[in-house]
């Protein structure tokens, strides 16, 4: 089997418990990559863990909704919520503003650049970009992020679309599956963006387990891994952690399930790696052409 798989945990830097889970999973061979939130409450702890695990690929988890900016708020007015200090608190509010043309490209460029630069100043060699809530599904966000990637010498970005073979597993609830399938119609526009089309910024053949977010357990993870095609490069997006008091103090819909995902990765990744034709595990820094 020549298929390659990136095991990426989102929300690195959100809490110390999430950071600890990421470090433990990488040490156990069950995680290859994580994306770090520049304004996460546990940012400094995440940077320490990243430096302690130099083989862990670390990307920048660009946050444009449900969080605090790195830039001075007055410099990115179109991204702010009602308090004029933080981002819009919900994805629906962000998308409403995006569709009405109220989010300005220059503000996305400024804030995304500030987040990338904060990681780089902390000594993080950024492997790739992705976005909180997958906001770069939409070309109006993907375009400026790709500009930031090129300017900042970040070589890759998440392909935020779920491949058809993974959607066919029917993981996740019906409304989320429907949303993922409808948004999948934007895939050709993502592929046509110049940086993606010309491979100036690399990406994968798709990201799996998006539909299963919040419901990814050992059984669904095993089914996903068993369904991997024989060729291609895919990212498995996951949200492992520890459901501890720190998690109670932050805004997230994923709480008890972070323990479930952590345990699923520890149980299922060694199983597939023990098989004769197991996938090759990489991080985004390894997106050179397959051997």
Structural commentary:
The chain has 291 residues and is α/β, with parallel strands linked by helices. It has one domain (4-286): TIM Barrel, CATH 3.20.20.370. 40% of the residues lie in helices and 12% in strands. The chain has twelve helices and seven strands. Strands 1, 2, 3, 4, 5, 6 and 7 form a seven-stranded parallel sheet that branches. Helix 10 links the parallel strand 5 (207-208) and strand 6. Helix 1 packs parallel to helix 2 and helix 4 crosses helix 5 (139-151). The model has no long low-confidence stretch (mean pLDDT 95).
In the CATH hierarchy, the third-tier topology is known as TIM Barrel
Number of individual domains: 1
Global shape: globular
Briefly, what CATH class?
A: Alpha Beta
Order of helices and strands: EHEHEHHEHHHHHEHEHHE
Number of helices: 12
**Average pLDDT over all residues:** 95
Number of strands: 7
Query: Approximately what portion of the residues adopt beta-strand conformation?
Result: 5-15%
CATH superfamily: Glycoside hydrolase/deacetylase
The poorly predicted ranges are none
Q: Could you describe the largest sheet, including whether it forms a barrel?
A: 7 strands, parallel
The helix/strand class is alpha/beta
Helix content: 25-40%
Radius of gyration: 18 Å
What is the CATH architecture descriptor? Alpha-Beta Barrel
Distance between the termini: 12 Å
Q: Keywords, please?
A:
TIM Barrel
Q: How would you summarize the topology of this molecule?
A:
Blueprint: E1 4-12, H1 16-27, E2 33-36, H2 43-52, E3 57-62, H3 91-99, H4 105-121, E4 126-131, H5 139-151, H6 164-167, H7 174-183, H8 187-192, H9 194-197, E5 207-208, H10 218-226, E6 233-238, H11 245-248, H12 256-273, E7 280-282
Parallel strand pairs: 1-2, 1-6, 1-7, 2-3, 3-4, 5-6
